[in-house]
């Protein structure tokens, strides 16, 4: 009997890279340089448990590409993360930043801990110790390498990161920009927490606005009315569901590790989260059908499937049974190359991770800019802009002799605050990048799908950075 071995995420990312690279005319050496992970720092440190036991914790930081600095990417806390996975995730960050024109190289960090079973005190200790190691090794800094949240970490951990970094670098003016995804009170930016989910829905909206692509798949134009299945109800899955619902879509199922729930009438993400907090499980959610095998929910009848949990969820095994017409990749690497092949054959529209889930790093970039400029977006110009808009309305009233109503004035005078600026910047970025990818696919039909077109764009942008340096003639 032959045992089927599943490819690693690193191998899968390289398959996608090679597929796109084969459509370029770049020299082999340049492609090899872009594909390879530049530096990996692997280390371990001892941590004392509250019960007195000493545990040796393994950790990594991989900087995949230095063609732009700083390098950027989250820190993952997971019991079964390994070096190969960190390198693959760092590579995805390089391509992701390039696709959405965020001027950073790609990186990723990881600590081999289970954040769900450790106490906050232990996690704080581990986080601070991890940052000490990164500082010692010059693997963190506003112009060097800037971490952010990833699976298993969030605002709380980023607050510990910035606090530790600042303590070790007293007086460094840009120190706040050493990490993103911080709480707003600790130098974070409004809109970062929900950015990946919001970006996903902007990506979906852009895809669904292409009448030709929708009609070709028997779908109506727009997000409104689409039936969505979401895998994961962490930060990304929760916000993707929320913004889908706010745009008129119906989230008909959530799939999480303990099982799934299905309600064709649509589920409210807040009510589901509250039920899970209270009972410890999504199962038994009132009015919904409980599905014991979580993976079965991915095969439910729906228009959009959003894998927003971990890698390798859509495989050659389950892809033929997946009914969704659109796959919107919220996680990094959720689709294996053999599943991708199935989707290509079926005509499923796969909106690839390196574009779809880039909202997080886009808003991280805005946070980094805010930290470097030491001023909140909108602070200087907001009142000035509102006053000039009001003056314009008055001039129109005088010219036409017709006064605006108070409601009109509220609608027309909309000088945005920080959140407004962040969300419009994110929307603009996601819309522009989608058009760029679609245009590449139009010009190079051999790419065949959005993922290959997105990889092509990324490779060409990184290649240009090297070629401009004159390194590769
Ligand atoms: N961890 C997130 C990602 O995979 C965000 C990275 C960042 O903001 O630097 O895209």
Radius of gyration: 23 Å
Strand order of the largest sheet: 10-9-8-7-11-12-13
Fold-level CATH name of the domain at 38-186? Rossmann fold
* Main sheet makeup: 7 strands, mixed
CATH architecture of the domain at 38-186: 3-Layer(aba) Sandwich
- In terms of DSSP E residues, the strand content is 5-15%
The low-confidence runs, each spanning 5 or more residues with pLDDT under 50, are none
Distance between the termini: 51 Å
Task: Give short descriptive properties of this protein.
473 residues, Rossmann fold, seven-stranded mixed beta sheet, 16 helices, 45% helix, binds glutamic acid
Describe it for me?
- Among the domains are: 38-186, Rossmann fold (3-Layer(aba) Sandwich); 218-346, Rossmann fold (3-Layer(aba) Sandwich).
- The radius of gyration is 23 Å and the shape is globular.
- The chain has helices at 9-21, 28-35, 83-99, 120-136, 155-168, 195-208, 211-216, 235-246, 269-279, 337-346, 353-356, 359-373, 382-400, 406-412, 418-443, 450-468; strands at residues 39-48, 54-63, 71-72, 75-77, 105-111, 145-146, 227-231, 250-256, 259-262, 289-291, 304-307, 326-328, 349-351.
- The protein starts with 8 loop residues before the first helix and ends in a 5-residue tail after the last helix.
- It has 16 helices and 13 strands.
- With 473 residues, it is α/β, with parallel strands linked by helices.
- A seven-stranded mixed β-sheet has the order 10-9-8-7-11-12-13, sandwiched between helices.
- The mean pLDDT is 96.
- The chain binds glutamic acid (GLU).
- Glutamic acid is lined by residues 72-74, 148-150, 180-181, 332, 357, 360-361, 364.
């Amino acid at each position: 009997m032959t045992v089927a071995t599943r490819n690693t995420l690193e191998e899968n990312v390289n398959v996608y890279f090679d597929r796109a690279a084969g459509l370029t005319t770049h020299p082999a050496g340049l492609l090899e340089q872009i594909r390879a992970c530049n530096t990996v720092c692997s280390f371990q440190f001892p941590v004392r448990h509250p019960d007195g036991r000493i545990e040796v914790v393994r950790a990594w930081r991989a900087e995949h590409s230095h063609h732009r600095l700083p390098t950027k990417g989250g820190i993952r806390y997971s019991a079964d993360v390994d070096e190969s996975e960190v390198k693959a995730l760092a590579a995805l960050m390089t391509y992701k930043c390039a696709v959405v024109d965020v001027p950073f190289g790609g990186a990723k960090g990881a600590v081999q801990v289970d954040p769900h079973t450790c106490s906050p005190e232990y996690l704080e200790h581990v986080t601070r110790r991890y940052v000490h190691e990164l500082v010692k090794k010059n693997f963190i800094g506003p112009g060097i390498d800037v971490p952010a949240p990833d699976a298993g970490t969030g605002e709380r951990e980023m607050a510990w990161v910035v606090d530790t970094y600042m303590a070790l670098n007293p007086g460094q003016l840009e120190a706040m920009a050493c990490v993103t995804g911080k709480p707003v009170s600790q130098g974070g930016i409004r809109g970062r927490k929900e950015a990946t989910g919001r970006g996903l829905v902007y990506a979906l909206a852009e895809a669904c606005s292409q009448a030709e692509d929708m009609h070709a798949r028997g779908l109506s134009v727009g997000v409104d009315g689409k039936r969505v299945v979401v895998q994961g109800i962490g930060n990304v899955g929760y916000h993707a569901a929320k913004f889908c619902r706010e745009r008129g879509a119906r989230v008909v199922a959530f799939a999480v590790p303990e099982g799934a729930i299905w309600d064709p009438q649509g589920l409210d993400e807040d009510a589901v989260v509250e039920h899970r907090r209270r009972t410890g499980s999504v199962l038994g959610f009132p009015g919904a059908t409980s599905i014991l095998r979580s993976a079965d929910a991915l095969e439910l009848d729906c228009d959009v499937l959003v894998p927003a949990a971990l890698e390798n969820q859509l495989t050659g095994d389950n892809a033929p049974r997946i009914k969704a017409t659109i796959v919107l990749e919220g996680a990094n690497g959720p689709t294996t190359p053999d599943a991708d092949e199935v989707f290509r054959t079926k005509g499923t529209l796969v909106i690839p991770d390196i574009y779809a889930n880039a909202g997080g790093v886009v808003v991280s970039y805005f946070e980094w800019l805010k930290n470097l400029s030491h001023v909140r977006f909108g602070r200087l110009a907001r009142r000035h802009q509102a006053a000039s808009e009001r003056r314009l309305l008055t001039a129109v009233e005088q010219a036409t002799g017709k006064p605006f109503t108070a409601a009109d004035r509220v609608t027309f005078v909309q000088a945005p605050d920080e959140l407004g600026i962040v969300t419009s910047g994110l929307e603009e970025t996601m819309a522009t990048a989608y058009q760029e990818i679609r245009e590449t696919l139009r010009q190079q039909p051999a790419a065949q799908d959005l993922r290959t077109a997105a990889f092509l764009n990324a490779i060409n942008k990184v290649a240009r950075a090297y070629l401009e340096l004159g390194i590769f003639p």
